[in-house]
Amino acid sequence: MTPIVSWWAGVLAGPWEDPNGDVLIVLGGSLLDKGLMGQSSYWRSVYALRAWRQGGFQRIVISGGPADYSTAAPMRDFLEAHGVPREAIEIEAESRSTHENAVRVAERLTRVSGRKVLLTSDYHMFRAYHAFKKAGLDVQPRPFPDARKRAVGWAGRWPAFLELVLETIKIGYYRARGWI
């Protein structure tokens, strides 16, 4: 499945660039327990930190809820612990889906000037980018190699393949709902 996983994740990621901007939007992923981010949230945080350290971004908006078990809060804490100033990080902790991430972040940032960059996993970028576009927020995609990296090792291939199948089903659902 390795060639299929890498190819499929690449298709969903779209153009592979690392644009800079003023606002970095990072989507929350998994949560293991209250206050403890899961693997996808961890890697999204790591790549957000890398983007921040490259310079240029003035603000990071992390989106992911729900409020009582927010994925955004532990991601913020991670970034802060690694040197990102707390005042540069804003969290949106009410959304429960990619659609809600897009709608709620668009409400906050529509009137904010500057270039907005969306960071999420390679396999998630297609749906996330189109959800933000549908919500009326112009973002530049900045995927990172999530499924593609997991597909390199034999133990990660099958879970990455299943994640891609689930993501493809979600894309169909979002299209049917008119969310992308």
Topology:
Layout (H helix, E strand, L loop, with lengths): L1 H12 L9 E5 L3 E3 L2 E2 L1 H16 L4 E5 L8 H10 L7 E4 L5 H12 L6 E6 L3 H10 L5 E5 L2 H4 L3 H24 L3
Parallel strand pairs: 1-4, 1-6, 4-5, 6-7
Antiparallel strand pairs: 2-3
Task: Characterise the protein shown here.
Helix content is about 50%, strand content about 15%. It has about 180 residues and is of the alpha/beta class. The radius of gyration is 15 Å and the shape is globular. The protein has one domain (about 15-145): 3-Layer(aba) Sandwich (Rossmann fold), CATH 3.40.50. It is built from seven helices and seven strands; from the N terminus they run H-E-E-E-H-E-H-E-H-E-H-E-H-H. The strands form two sheets. It has a five-stranded parallel β-sheet, sandwiched between helices. A two-stranded antiparallel sheet has the order 2-3.
Global Rg:
15 Å
Architecture per CATH nomenclature, i.e. the level-2 architecture: 3-Layer(aba) Sandwich
Arrangement of strands in the largest sheet: 5-4-1-6-7
- Main sheet specs: 5 strands, parallel
Q: How would you name the CATH homologous superfamily?
A: HUPs
Q: Uncertain spans, ≥5 residues at pLDDT below 50?
A: none
Number of helices: 7
Structural class designation? alpha/beta
Overall form: globular
- The level 1 CATH classification is Alpha Beta
The number of distinct β-strands equals 7
State the end-to-end CA separation: 28 Å
Using the coordinates shown, work out and report the CATH topology.
Rossmann fold
**Average pLDDT rating:** 92
Report strand %: 15-25%
